[in-house]
Design a protein that fits this description.
Blueprint: E1 5-9, H1 12-21, H2 37-44, H3 46-49, E2 53-58, E3 61-72, E4 77-84, H4 94-108, E5 113-119, H5 123-131, E6 135-142, E7 145-151
Parallel strand pairs: 4-5
Antiparallel strand pairs: 1-2, 2-3, 3-4, 5-7, 6-7
Amino acid sequence: MLKNIQFKIMDQKEAMEIADCWKYNEPYDFYDMTDDPEDYEEFIDPHQRTDTFYSVLDNKQLIGYFCLFSKDSAMNEIELGLGMKPGITGKGFGEQFVKEILSYIEKHFSFQVIWLSVADFNQRAIKVYERAGFKYVTEKIKKQMVENTFLW
């Protein structure tokens, strides 16, 4: 169980650790930052990353991150991206991790709708998102990968 969750704007050291050091086992290696040069560059460049990327800490240890992107400002909608440190994935912390992030967003931001996308093969994450309250909306093809889109 995660006990002392804290959130802060991601700093450069944290961005570099996530981008360069977090390596996932197959098939989740799809999420390795170094496998997508465009995503990697956006993540490590503070001018591109801006202050919409947050580090998630447990007992002051980096365990994950999330980022927020404006989806439809007229409709007050955002898209949520997130990731957990590889060593703690698959250990039953996902639902709490996601719910803590959603709680933080509710307290600090004003949005009516939160969207998120997940690769179709990642059934483990899909189950977590559904338990956290997301509802399946649609699937789309992105970079030759089927993604499921969820709404919260």
